[in-house]
Amino acid sequence: MIRQFFCTAALCAAATGALADPDPADWAAVTEEARGQTVYWNAWGGSDAVNGFIDWLGAQALAQHGVTVTHVKLSDTAEAVSRVLAEKTAGQDSGGAVDLIWINGENFAAMKEQGLLFGPWAEALPNFALTDPGANAALTADFTVPTEGLEAPWGMARLVFFHDSARLAEPPRSMAALADWAAENPGRFAYPQPPDFLSSTFLKQALIELTPDPALLSQPVTDATYDAATAPLWAYLDALHPNLWRQGRAWPQNGPRLVQLMADAEIDIGFDFNPNAAANAIAAFQLPDTVRSHVHDGGTLGNASFVAIPYNAKAKAGAMVLANLLMSPEAQARMANPEVWGLGPVLALDRLAPQDRALFDALPLGEATLDPAALGPTLPEPHPSWMDRLETDWTRRYGVAP
Amino acid sequence: MLRAAPALVLLALLGPVAAGLAGTLAPAFGVMPTLGGTTPGLEPFRALLDWPGLPRALALSLGTGLAATALALGLTLLICAGWHGTRAFALLERALSPLLSVPHAAAAFGLAFLIAPSGWIARGLAQMLGWDRPPDLLILQDPWGLSLTAGLVVKEMPFLLLMVLAALPGLRPGQSLATAQALGYGRITGWIKVILPRLYPLIRLPVYAVLAYSVSVVDVAMILGPTTPPPLGVQVLRWMNDPDLALRFQAAAGAVLLFAATLLALALWRCGELALARATRGWLTRGGRGRAERGLRAAGLALGGMSAGAVLLGLAGLAVWSLAGVWTFPSLLPDALSLRSWQRHGPGLAALLAETLLIAALAAGIATALVLACLQAEQRHHLRPTRRALWLLYLPLLVPQIAFLPGLQVLALLAGLEGSRAAVIAAHLVFVLPYAFLSLSDPWRALDPRYAAVGHALGHGPASVFWRLRLPLLLRPVLTAFAVAAAASVGQFLPTLLIGAGRVPTLTTEAVALASGGDRRVIGVTALAQTGAAFLPFALALLLPALLWRHRRGMRHG
After folding, report:
1. What's the CATH class of domain B2-28+58-322+338-555?
2. Which residue ranges traverse the bilayer (chain B) (predicted)?
3. For residue A243, is it left (φ>0), alpha (ψ between -120 and 50) or beta?
């Protein structure tokens, strides 16, 4: 009798465990469950603009859906990944500390591969219908890894260069021109040291511009293709490095450091993965208002930022409601506003109602920000396997001083 | 109860360290089922050895660690030998607690802004020489780790000075030195010959703690150290943070190697101690009275002043940055001042101040109480810790944090403790207890036992003697120990982050996240806020005795 009771209880517990995960197809039930939940959103906390936007979004979530948002400010996304990993190691398969992670690229690929993500859920969000994955492949392929509904896109990043027009009138607009310019102006350009993600972006941009057949890059790397495809890149870097800041004997640690070096007049050209980075830095007093953006003629790399829910998250329904809110026209227009942040929206404007589209038409563009036409074409990310090989080889060649 | 205190303390310290180490050793030998590692093997170490930067990273960790410790210790001793008891020394002593309150990373940022080719000193030169671009010089992140060593020296010297000051009174240095000087010994020579041999055993463990910290340092090294390759501690953190989760095995192996490197550094240091003792044996007793002392004294004061000045000036630089509008090279000061950085981040940080201070007060309070219980047990039951027990006490300071915190995080999760304030306090306790013990044990043992004897003779029991004699007489060192522990708690980053699960934010975790954006204005605000929070307990330790003893003239300077 007693044994039977325990068995039933265990069964019930198992059944409720399985039932407990909210189903985004039943959106009314999700919003109902989300009400009153607290979502711990783990997101990089190093930017005023981003922190301000997340604060605003949290206020919206509370007002509209009764969801409390706590921004867990990270100095590195890996902190959140490590936390979920530690929880899985300790067997804590529910009630985890992380509800939503700002993630993309390699971190997503790793969590997906290790089964650390909940889902699929993203493509069932009501506002996902406002995007057009057919026209924008970056929304469902993160660094070419299929997202399969495990993460929801919310912003479009683009590689954009910036220069101080007071010191440099006409910046170089291709990798080849950049090397020539660096040879004439030694010590005035720098890129961060791999494996920083902005550094990887620079190396990939250079690879795309220099490799004989860019089409190969969308395929996984093979020993047969790698040497021929990357030989021009290594020749380029061998020639460029002696003309870099500190002759390539020291490297900026990350992207934000480039902004600081620019303000210190140590370098003349910097770059960032936010199309609005220069304007944000000017608004934060970090750069003088003579700084302008530019891109390379053949286009620059672009990709999407995503949010994902860990497999053991406590407030999955609340996290989904927040992700959906993040893709709402109102939030997207605010995020795209250069005075707020300036990240590109993920919505397809032709799928919006006229009054929602008007939100985007009304966006102001500062002098330091390029308009969509001047931004040029977006280049797709190479398959992540290229990046792994590039980083390893870079470290072998340049990352270990003799 | 009191008899159990030492055992309780050891348990509070060793349990977490042992569990943490186990959590690192397993993946280092390939066992981490979550990531598919089930069969033990040496593969992670093989991968580690294959990393081409390993020899240099290891050499950097050992070289900068040993050099920084030797320089900081040498400088501390030179200043004490040349200036202890003078007015200049009192001045330096007064600057001590602000220097101790500056977090390591903030001191490193400040120093970086001073000495960079586009930094404050260079800007002064630029004004005179008319530069509009900074020179392309490799000063920060130099491959030899010289800036890193300098950063460690300026930050560790105040700590060693505090430890020397805590240990000195028990040695009655005034009488010894007067005797030596009466015999014609120079001030420095006399100090080194009659005081140092008795002083060094008392500060040996703090010196070892400094050495272990310097070998495995991460935050200072990330700002001032080289990157091609970085010191081993930084590289282990990089692997641990790499999106490629397979590198966790290699990171764990690296952490084990870092621990081994720390032990090697300690062994080398011990050999150095013995060699130096042997080499100077003759010199000590041969009767040389010392020469050229004036130069040495001046050098000691100048270097000590420079070292303290660098930290304070760096802090001033950060203060100006926190108020800066646009500020580009080569301007000495910002084009415009603005309160915006404070307005933007001040309220958020202030909200965390209460939580930070609560955690610090509880962790430091428990630590001080435990240390007092241990010391009292020692006195009453003659449980004087053996040398080996003392080593155990300092284990949390000697084992690189990165080698055992990830394991500790898993332990906290298994215990269902992660993400609570209590868990964070418990984790802090592991790191602040040794500091409390470090700064309290010597003054406590140095108290003249005749006070207690008189108390007992007057009919007071042990408890009464403790509460009515010992504690009041030692109020100042007790409060100093509390302050050192609280300041250490305020500065904890990794333990708070890992054990707090991001749900127990403190000033320090917030500061590190905000500073990851690299804006010096934000770094200035957060660094000052952290320094302020760590300084509060020190200020309290100075103020409280003055208030309590305002009617007790004899206690005011005791």
Report:
1. mainly alpha
2. 58-84, 105-126, 146-168, 205-225, 245-269, 299-329, 349-377, 389-416, 422-440, 478-502, 522-549
3. alpha
